[in-house]
């Protein structure tokens, strides 16, 4: 039996960064919003004195329960996909705040090149520069159009930052100063400046000082004691939905948050969504929540899966190239090196999730690609996020993985080790996509999402190039031993790299090649807005969160305008 509830103006599917921003902006504008989140509710108080690496970092308490719902994976369409039974390459958040609760806080704007990647590449290098295997396309929006929304996100989250060379222009300074540099970061700065490069402290949502945002929410100052990644911040010093937009939405009286509410289907009739079917995960009861507008605001995988299971949009067909739902799935090219120093010692335990030295000299089109057989690049980072004692215990190559020598090397190098890595761009191809698995289903009987993905030759060439840069920098920094952290023969589903999954419901200017317009409104169902990393037409060489937040602010404007006028916003 399904209980039908009173109609609301807007229902959001998920209450993380995107759902929280939309709830805050729409409720401030007077719209009635219901936020459905399949995980439990939580706030800063839930994380007090819980620096428990085993509980959160290794047993994944804040993550999705893979026994209830997971995805299947294969490298190519000739293989049979198998379910992901345990976490590896990426983590899937669960609960109010979503991944915005347990993220590190690195807050990068995408490069102007990213939003017009195809046209800018052709303009500079000619169309022959684009490998035929790539399906890159412009996003249907420019950096200049995105810039005000980036600024809104940064002001709301209290981003700490300073200069950002080789990135797009800024209309306003960061609301907080950059985080403090450590001695290890000073070595990175000195070495890279000597090489003629342009290092800076990465913008971060770890607030460098106490801050009151434009909505009146107070964020505390970062304590630099680590335990950010995979953890909620016990001090309320990390910009997250739980400390910013969700309290703002609740304060209006126009937002109702329903935790433990799993959306099963988007209901629709005659080309319009009529609401959603959801289940109370504690009791199994099912409800229909009618709504004028449905905002699909969950993680990339769930956005795709929910649309496919609901029969919304046209599924992508890799054989013909037609259809858009599931198209242009991308991950990230993560390569790097471990440097070990016999003559330097660092306090590796201190730090903050978003604290890092970074440079963009090898990112986007900031260097001339004429003599390279790949496009784009990646940011080079040296983070100091607070080294955890259990699973962050690197030793030089050739060291046994257990026993007396392993213990001796672990003790020697725990504070003499630095890792340089890259967030490398990953460009889409016809062969990498998302669809529904024909065999495996979740606990409620709905097909799981199937991920078909592997690195392309251009990914491998980009990764090799970026790996060469990190090695050169570590040599310049004085590392006595350098271990290679790169294996790109095939995508490794078992080794954690980054939770930066994008695409599948991509934005653009053409309904034939994109699923949503630049307000993230579906072309085929104009009262459905699909907001999140699923909208990215490719993966850039940065952390993806700032762009996700900026697009959520733009989508909020679109939903408000649609609610007043109706119809397509394109």
TrEMBL record:
Q: Name one Pfam family in it.
A: GMC_oxred_N
Residues in domain Glucose-methanol-choline oxidoreductase N-terminal? 208-330
Which of UniProt's keywords are assigned here?
Answer: FAD, Flavoprotein, Oxidoreductase
Every Glucose-methanol-choline oxidoreductase C-terminal domain range: 428-552
- Top-level taxonomic group: Bacteria
**InterPro entries this protein is in?**
FAD/NAD-bd_sf, GMC_OxRdtase_N, GMC_OxRtase_C
Known Gene3D superfamilies for this protein? Answer: FAD/NAD(P)-binding domain
Q: Which family does it belong to?
A: Belongs to the GMC oxidoreductase family.
List, alphabetically, the PANTHER family matched. LONG-CHAIN-ALCOHOL OXIDASE
* Protein name, entry field: GMC family oxidoreductase
Q: What is the lineage of its organism?
A: Bacteria, Bacillati, Bacillota, Bacilli, Bacillales
């Amino acid at each position: 039996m399904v209980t039908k509830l009173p109609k609301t103006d807007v229902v959001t599917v998920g209450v993380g960064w995107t759902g929280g921003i939309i709830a805050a902006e729409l409720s401030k504008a007077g719209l009635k919003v219901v936020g459905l989140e399949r995980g439990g509710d939580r706030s800063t108080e839930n994380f007090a004195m819980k620096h428990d690496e085993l509980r959160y970092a290794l047993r994944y308490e804040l993550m999705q329960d893979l026994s209830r719902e997971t995805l299947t994976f294969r490298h190519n369409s000739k293989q049979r996909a198998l379910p992901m039974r345990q976490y590896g390459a990426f983590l899937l958040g669960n609960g109010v705040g979503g991944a915005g609760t347990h993220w590190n806080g690195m807050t990068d704007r995408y490069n102007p090149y990213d939003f017009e990647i195809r046209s800018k590449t052709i303009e500079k290098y000619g169309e022959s520069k684009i490998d035929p295997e790539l399906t890159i396309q412009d996003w249907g929006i420019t950096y200049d159009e995105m810039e005000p929304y980036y600024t809104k996100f940064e002001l709301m989250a209290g981003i700490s930052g300073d200069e950002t060379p080789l990135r797009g222009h800024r209309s306003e300074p960061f609301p907080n100063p950059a985080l403090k540099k450590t001695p290890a970061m000073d070595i990175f700065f000195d070495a890279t400046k000597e090489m003629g490069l342009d290092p800076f402290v990465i913008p971060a949502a770890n607030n460098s000082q106490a801050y009151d945002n434009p909505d009146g929410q107070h964020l505390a100052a970062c304590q630099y004691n680590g335990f950010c990644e995979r953890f909620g911040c016990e001090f309320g010093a990390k910009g997250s939905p739980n400390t910013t937009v969700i309290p703002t939405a609740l304060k209006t009286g126009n937002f109702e948050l329903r935790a433990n509410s799993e959306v099963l289907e988007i209901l629709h009739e005659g080309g319009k969504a009529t609401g959603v079917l959801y289940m109370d995960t504690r009791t199994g009861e099912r409800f229909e929540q009618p709504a004028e507008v449905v905002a699909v605001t969950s993680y990339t995988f769930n956005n795709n899966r929910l649309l496919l299971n609901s029969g919304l949009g046209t599924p992508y067909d890799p054989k013909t190239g037609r259809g858009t739902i599931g198209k242009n799935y991308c991950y990230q090219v993560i390569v790097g090196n471990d440097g070990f120093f016999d003559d330097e010692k660092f306090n590796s335990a201190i730090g903050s999730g978003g604290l890092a030295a970074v440079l963009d000299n090898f990112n986007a089109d900031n260097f001339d690609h004429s003599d390279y057989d790949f496009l784009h690049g990646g940011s080079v980072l040296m983070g100091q996020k607070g080294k955890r004692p259990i699973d962050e215990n690197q030793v030089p190559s050739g060291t046994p993985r257990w026993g007396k020598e392993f213990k001796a090397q672990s003790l020697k190098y725990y504070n003499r080790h630095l890792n340089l890595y890259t967030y490398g761009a990953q460009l889409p191809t016809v062969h990498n996509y998302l669809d529904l698995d024909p065999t495996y289903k979740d606990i409620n009987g709905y097909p799981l999402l199937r991920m078909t993905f592997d690195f392309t030759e251009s990914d491998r060439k980009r990764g090799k190039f970026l790996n060469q840069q990190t090695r050169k920098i570590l040599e310049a920094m004085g590392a006595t031993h350098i271990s290679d952290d790169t294996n790109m023969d095939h995508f490794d589903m078992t080794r954690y790299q980054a939770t930066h999954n994008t695409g599948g419901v991509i934005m653009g200017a053409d309904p034939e090649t994109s699923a949503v317009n630049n307000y993230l409104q579906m072309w085929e169902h104009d009262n459905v807005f699909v907001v999140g990393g699923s909208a990215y037409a490719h993966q850039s060489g940065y952390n993806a969160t700032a762009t996700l937040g900026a697009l959520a602010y733009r989508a909020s404007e679109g939903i408000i305008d649609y609610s007043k006028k109706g119809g397509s916003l394109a």
